[in-house]
Design a protein that fits this description.
Layout: H1 3-23, E1 29-32, E2 38-40, H2 41-58, E3 62-64, E4 68-69, E5 76-84, H3 86-91, E6 97-104, E7 107-115, E8 120-125, E9 131-132, E10 135-136, E11 150-151, H4 165-176, E12 182-183, H5 188-196
Parallel strand pairs: 3-5, 11-12
Antiparallel strand pairs: 1-2, 3-4, 5-6, 6-7, 7-8, 8-9, 9-10
């Protein structure tokens, strides 16, 4: 498979999803999920649109956040989050995007992060540079934590799990002794793209 060609096909598919993504801003909850998480009608509609278009244009099945699909360990599978940062999106924040990854035998080989409200598109294939709006970005240089923006995912201090809320609070407390420049965007995809781009 030609990864660059697949990313080009997928880019066109995501570009076609930008208009409904922008039009649906502030969409209300349509499907309740775990805790206070939810999906909007836009999540559902964009997932249907992107899945159909990707299968037609690339012949590769898709696993979507809302409807599931092909197994992650399939020989080839797209993995889609139609609206990353759904709470932001529904509240009217522009910090939301569309995330798409390509897995080969369970290993990531390409990724696309579309940030329609910001007007930025990131793509990458394994072994290649980060592409921002079609332009290759330079390799990252080491940076001091004291001089860096540090992104933190949203959480509750009372949450449980592998990394409980109290542990996260302690990590942030200790990091704050090195840098007071914390940012909590509420979109994991945006945070990861910004790390790759040297922003965070």
């Amino acid at each position: 498979m030609d990864l660059e060609a697949l990313v080009a096909e997928a880019s066109a598919v995501l570009d076609d999803a930008v208009e409904p993504f922008l039009a649906g801003h502030r969409a209300e909850s349509a499907v309740s999920k775990k805790g206070n998480d939810f999906a909007t009608e836009v999540d559902l509609a964009i997932e249907r649109q992107v899945v159909d278009a990707l299968v037609k244009s690339t012949g590769i099945e898709v696993h979507g956040e809302e409807f599931g699909g092909a197994d992650f360990d399939s020989p080839w599978v797209w993995v889609l989050d139609p609206v990353d940062g759904t709470f932001n999106y529904a509240a009217g924040s522009p910090l939301a995007g569309i995330l798409l990854g390509l897995l080969r035998d369970g290993e990531p080989v390409a990724g696309l992060t579309w940030l329609p409200f910001i007007g930025t598109r990131y793509t990458a294939v394994v072994g290649g540079p980060l592409m921002k709006d079609g332009e290759p970005q330079p390799a990252l240089e080491p940076a001091s934590l004291a001089d860096a923006l540090i992104g933190a995912g949203s959480f509750s201090a009372d949450s449980r799990g592998r990394f409980p809320g109290r542990y996260r609070v302690a990590v942030l407390e200790n990091l704050s002794r090195l840098s007071s420049r914390f940012r909590m965007h509420g979109s994991t995809g945006l945070d990861l793209a910004y790390v790759a781009d040297g922003i965070l």
